[in-house]
Structure formats: structure tokens, C-alpha cells
Amino acid sequence: MDTKDLFDTLAAEEQPPTAVDVRRAVAAGRATRRRRRTALAAGGLAVCLAGTFTWHGLEGQVRGDRTATVVHDAPDKDTLPASGVSPLSHAYYDWCGEKWSPGKGSAFAGRDCVQWRVVTRDGRTYRMPEAAGVYLDQTAANYMNTAAPLEITPDGRRVAYYSAKDEKFAVRDLASGQIWLSPQTVSHEEMVKNAPIVVLSPDGRFLVLNGRLRAVVDMETGRVTDVPQGWQPMSVAEGGSRVIVTNDRSRYGLLEDGEVRPFSGALEESLSRLAPDGRTVAYLDGGASSTDEYRPDDTVVTLDATTGKALRRVKFRDAPKGFRPWRIGSWRGPTEVVVTAVVTDRPRWERKPTEPARTGETAYAIDVTTGKVRKLGTYTFRGWSGSVVIPGT
């Protein structure tokens, strides 16, 4: 069963995917060696992550070898202030903490609780009504496209989202309150149908738009860099001069000065964002398999994006038992790349029918020179469906 078959089956059963289903989906995607072609990396499986939020461990609040812990049991009713907001820990939506079936969102119309919520590192939770949230007009044909995208810079200071009022993508600086709008207009209907994703540069100045738009936008000047036909942008380096692109033939490339230099050979794995040096990228690998059986990743591989050639392969070290990262994102300094792993609760048959799952994601940093794995924080909650966004992933 491939990823699409899995979720078609779940939709027919009117069962929103849980984190357990996501693990099955990842296995299916890896078995066909097409993981980066699925909606996993783009957040299309966001319906697995949801609920009344309990938050343990904040990215960016590390004290020596210890991770600061804040528990936030219930969201505040406040709307995001116009300015003066401290850096974000994460964002989430939870379908009001209620049961939801794909394609049946109209029952939630007019309710504030379907909006994105952002959580600051000091534990404040705000509704963000200007950011389009869940799609209430979702259909059976696009049930994996649950909500409009939202992206947070690694430092938590800027957030990108789709402004339904303006029909444009927006980037907001949380401290100053300044908002920049992309020059491209995108209708709500196109958002629901095509599920475009957005990716920010580490400083939040450049916005990657994929799909029909196929561009990188300097949000502070409005300058648009179009991506050549046949390629899709995936991430952009600080300063915006280098862009990682991909095509439908399992090839990655580096877009610079208007030209794409393809990597040497095909690569069917999800790449990290560009490292602070502007040239290093990483991916996770489980090794070759003579069968279609899924093999957990146990190695981090780095590439030079200017040549596409491998720099080093390093086995994980000091990883927790059962470590199975499923997503790779930004960097925490020159040698550590951030990955996340799905958190799962007891299986459905071991819980009461009325008891939602405890699920979410745990963020880790992997040192690409030594393979050492260290935990950054865990973001868990109880609920039936929804999504969480961690900065830079």
C-alpha cells in the first residue's frame, strides 16, 4: 500500500490519520523510495497532529545541557497583538479539540477555534485570525489538504502565512508588527485545490513559493526571482542568492544567478534547508535494501550544494531508543541540523473510544560531523486531529 492508498482508505473509513498512521505512511513512502514526492515534508499529513495543547520543552530555551520546560494546558483567548510579540515556540490548530472527518469541515464554520494559534517561548498563546486556517470547504478529492500553510523562522521572530483578506502570502515581523505582502495574488479556491507550500529563509526576508507560482520573493523589496521551467524551489539561503530546487525526475539542483546546476545523480530523499555557510545540505538515509521493506534512517549525509557531491556519511550516535526521524529542516549553527520524530500514544484499541490520542513531534539536533543526537524539545497534545508547526521545519 502506498501513501495515497493508505489515506484514501482512512478517508473512506472517516478516520482522520493519527501519528500511528503517519508512521505507516512514512514506511510506505520510504518503501517506494519516493518520500520527498509525498505530502509528508510539505505538511500534507498535518491531520495527524492535534488537540488540547500540553507543551514540554521549548526550542531555543536551552540552559547549558538542560532544556527548559514550560507546560501550557489551555490556550488564551487573546488575538495576536499588533506588535511587541516575543519569539514563537510553535504554532498549531486543533479543530476545536473535537472529532473531525475529512471533507466535513462545514460544521465548524464561524468558530474562532479553527484558526491558527501561535505560542510564544514564554508560554503565551494567541489566535492569529489574519492567517487563513483550516479549509472548511474541503472535499473528498482534496482531503489531505487540511489547512493553509504557516511557516516560522528558526529564531521564531517572523511568521509567513496566507492572508485570505488580501489573497496574498504575507510575512509578519512579530516584534515590530510590520507586514509584507507578496506581489502574487492567489485565490482561496487555488489554495484549497493545489495546496501550495511556503518556506522562509533563515532571516525571514525571502519567501519560497512552489506550484504554479514557482518563485522566490524578496518580501522587503518585492523583487521576484522566477525559477526556470521544470524546476520547483524547495528552500533559500540567507541573503536569497542560492535556492535549492528539484524536478520530477528525482534530481536536485542549485539555482544561482538565474541558472540551475543539477546535482550529480538522482536523490530520492528529503533535503534539509541550506546550512549557514550557504552551500551545505543534509539528508537522512537508512541504507540500501534488497526488498521494499522500510528501513529506519540511521545515518546523516551531507552534500555540497554547489557540486551536488557527498561530503560525509555519519552514523547516528547517542540516539534514543526507537529513534525514527521523519522530517529534516533548518540548522542550529554550522554543524547541527534539526529533525523531528513523531510522538505516539497508546494504539486506538488500548484507549477508550472517547479518549483522544496524545501525539505530536519531538525535535532533535544531529551533529553532521559526529552523528551525535540531542533532544531539543517535545510538543505534544491530546486531540483528534490538527497540526503543529515547529520553527524552521
Percent of residues in helical segments? under 10%
* Tally of helical runs: 3
The third-level CATH topology is Methylamine Dehydrogenase, Chain H
The CATH architecture classification is: 7 Propeller
User: CATH first level: which class?
Assistant: Mainly Beta
Order of helices and strands: HHEEEEEEEEEEHEEEEEEEEEEEEEEEE
- Which consecutive residue ranges, at least 5 long each, have pLDDT under 50? 1-76
On the 0 to 100 scale, the average pLDDT is: 79
For this structure, the quaternary state is single chain
| Rg over CA atoms | 20 Å
Please outline the major beta sheet. Answer: 5 strands, antiparallel
Structure at a glance:
This protein has helices at residues 3-12, 19-31, 188-194, and strands at residues 52-56, 62-63, 66-67, 88-93, 117-120, 125-127, 150-152, 158-163, 168-173, 179-181, 198-200, 206-209, 215-218, 224-226, 232-236, 243-246, 252-256, 259-262, 280-285, 299-304, 309-315, 325-331, 336-343, 357-367, 373-383, 387-389. The protein is mainly β and 393 residues long.
Q: Explain this structure to me?
A:
It is built from 3 helices and 26 strands. 47% of the residues are buried. The protein is mainly beta. β24 and β25 (373-383) form a beta hairpin. α1 (3-12) runs antiparallel to α2. Helix content is 8%, strand content 33%. It has a 5-stranded antiparallel beta sheet. It has one domain: Methylamine Dehydrogenase, Chain H. Mean pLDDT is 79; it is low at 1-76.
